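Practice record 12: protein with 1,3-dihydroxyacetonephosphate.
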Amino acid sequence: MSNRKTIIAGNWKMNKTPKEAEALLGDVLNVAKGAACEVVVCTPYVDLPCACAVAKGSNVNVGAQNLHFKASGAYTGEISAAMLQELGVGYVIIGHSERREYFAETDATVALKIGAALAAGLTPILCVGESLEQREQGIMGEHIRTQIKIALADVAAADMGKVVVAYEPIWAIGTGKTATSEQAQEVCKLIRDTLAELYDDATAQSVSILYGGSMNAKNAAELLAQPDIDGGLIGGASLKAEDFGKIIAAAK
Ligand code: 13P
């Protein structure tokens, strides 16, 4: 048995105004009471001050959905790691497929962002995953290994305990089409094997690997029962406190 953390993280994406966020987070705090796992909610930037204030002193952690890798400067519209850290944000999603697809993020910028997050004491949730086309072409494994290797190229083994990896097959995000527990386990194991190759077995065993992609109140328990799946990164179902609560309850 490993002692790695089970983490249930919600990614609200571009949903909820600050007022709406305050209400939803209040409900999340209720359903998360006494949770046996680490609970995280990743809100839009403008919701973060309120979310950090509401979650203060509770067992719910607040995360951002992105950051910029530079410390400061002429980068209009961007947010630095220090800005997040000062608010009390603990986690940050990095390299989500929507950022890679719509905002031209590359493995190289993802690597820089991981470094910036770690330097500021934030826990990065590194997202990787293949498209349906890559899966069908048989290059899924190669693609995911490349994403992992480049993203973590500058991360020392000693820092890997502070990195969370999320496997999110692009074809399963927001589609209602979940990877089967076997498919999700296969890739999460591939990620762990890649970490063992890059670092060592003990390091690989210490990293929490999450599954994301249409995880919901009904399918969570089966996915979370897989040996290499240590939690979930949840989009749609994290916007309904009751459903999110059921997923938290499924994480033992
Ligand atoms: P859905 O749960 O809505 O499929 O989103 C998954 C995701 O992208 C989480 O980051």
